[in-house]
Amino acid sequence: MHHSEQNWNFFNPRGEVEVSGVHLPHWQQGSVVQFITFRLGDSLPSSKLRELEQQNKVSVDTELLDPFEMQLNEWLDKGLGSCLLSNPEKRIELTKTLISDEGKRARFISWIVMPNHVHVLCEPLVALSSLLQSWKSISAHRIDHGSIWQSGYYDRMARDMKDLIAYAKYIRNNPKGLPSGSYTLWESYGLRMEFVSIAGPAGAPTGPTQVTGAGAPPRP
């Protein structure tokens, strides 16, 4: 068994699943690990949004990311829109908002704040809708740049440790090619230890968390 595997909750195909949302269904099974994506309101043009809406078929399935999510992430990574979060002073207000929920409303495994979107890997301790509403509203108020977030979010439950590591690697590799000052990456000590078991000493943690990129908040 991996170092922290016993501490993380994974999807149980026999368990009950709470489904919420109308246009974009969201799936939650208690505190099962979730891979969550949310984005700035101007990160995709309306033409792309209409194309995504036509493709949108979300379900609990066997894929890490369905074609809809893969296309979404590909477009987001092109850095469209104002990319407000590339500004460290703006970005740190969101990172502080996330950090303040650690152990209270969510147990974070890793997250990354990109110039125009955010990926979070965590165990939610409250309803996903409540988490996303508070992250968006509090950070928008602190950033003080008007209504910045696109409504809705995208979520995917992890079935096992293999899924968790795949999502964590995706998050870690997401800023490839970007300047270090344009994003903030956070990884928990437990996740870093998992990477050690896979990659050896090269993945060794340097402290309770690993934070890279400008705008990184103080470690809790």
Account of the 3D structure:
The chain is of the alpha+beta class and 220 residues long. 33% of the residues lie in helices and 19% in strands. The protein contains 6 helices and 8 strands, in the order E-E-E-H-H-H-E-E-H-E-H-E-H-E. A 6-stranded antiparallel sheet has the order 6-3-5-4-7-8, sandwiched between helices. A two-stranded antiparallel sheet has the order 1-2. Helix 3 runs antiparallel to helix 4. It is globular, with a radius of gyration of 17 Å.
Summarize the structure.
This protein is α+β, with helices and mostly antiparallel strands. The protein is built from six helices and eight strands. The protein has a single domain (5-212), classed as Alpha-Beta Plaits (2-Layer Sandwich).
Explain the layout of strands and helices.
Elements: E1 18-20, E2 26-28, E3 34-39, H1 46-55, H2 67-76, H3 88-100, E4 106-113, E5 117-124, H4 128-143, E6 154-157, H5 161-173, E7 184-188, H6 189-199, E8 209-212
Antiparallel strand pairs: 1-2, 3-5, 3-6, 4-5, 4-7, 7-8
